[in-house]
Amino acid sequence: MIGGEKMANGERACTDEYIVVKAMENGVTISGLTRGKDTKFHHSEKLDRGEVMIAQFTEITSAMKVRGRARIFTRHGVIESGE
Q1: Nearest residue to 76 (alpha-carbon basis) of 20, 7, 12
Q2: Which secondary-structure segment (H or E) carries 13?
Q3: Burial label, 24 (beta-carbon count in 10 A; 0-12, 13-18, 19+)
Q4: Where is the Tryptophan RNA-binding attenuator protein domain (predicted)?
Q5: Burial 46-75 (b: 16+ CB within 10 A, else e)
Q6: Rounded to the nearest 5 degrees, what angle is found at the Cα of 4, between the Cα atoms of 19 and 33?
Q7: For residue 70, which of 54, 51, 55 has the smallest C-alpha distance?
Q8: Cβ atoms of residues 16 and 3 within 8 Å
Q9: Domains and their CATH numbers in the chain
Q10: Fewest beta carbons within 10 Å, which of 30, 60, 64, 66?
């Protein structure tokens, strides 16, 4: 893993990877998906227009799904979801 704080067992608790999601409409949903053999949804948040969420990839979270019209800011650039 990249960066993050060390846990007692020496593993990293989280990575330095963040995304910022800005909702461009009401009802944008952000869902976190787990790592491992079976990928599962483990958390979701709903944003209204103009709300921003900063999310970090962790030892548990390997992917995030954004549903609705939003701007997603990453170190790789800006992505727009929805129509």
Answers
A1: 20
A2: none
A3: middle
A4: 16-81
A5: ebeeeeebebebbeebeebebebbbbbeee
A6: 50
A7: 51
A8: yes
A9: 14-81 (2.60.40.50)
A10: 60
Which residue type, as a one-letter code, is found at position 52? V
Choose among 29, 27, 30, 4: nearest CA to 15: 4
Say how many C-beta atoms besides its own lie within 10 A of residue 23's C-beta.
23
User: Which amino acid is present at 23?
Assistant: A
pLDDT tens-place values along the chain, 83 residues long = 344 445 555 555 566 789 999 999 999 999 999 888 888 888 899 999 999 999 988 888 888 999 999 999 999 999 999 97
Number of residues assigned to the chain: 83
